[in-house]
Design goal:
The chain is 71% helix and 6% strand. A hairpin with a 5-residue loop joins strand 1 and strand 2. Helix 1 packs antiparallel against helix 2.
Length: 69
């Protein structure tokens, strides 16, 4: 099993990737002439996978914290 530092680094990397995809998704919004914003998901699958990964890594870190108490 990885140590805490490696898990924290992996979590930070995954969060940064997720933030980047969210920004790309937001930048890809198209404004129609009537002011309507159309969002066409391009990165939905990747974003969901990264969210799941972040959640799993966070749970691992919480379990590590709980086991130290």
């Amino acid at each position: 099993m990885s140590n805490r530092f490696e898990i924290q680094r992996e979590l930070t990397d995954a969060q940064n990737q997720l933030d980047s995809l969210c920004q790309k998704e937001a930048d890809s919004c198209k404004t129609e002439s009537i002011g309507t914003v159309t969002i066409e998901p391009k990165y939905g699958k990747d974003m969901n996978e990264l969210r799941s990964k972040c959640s799993e890594l966070s749970m691992i870190l919480e379990a590590m914290d709980a086991s130290e108490d």
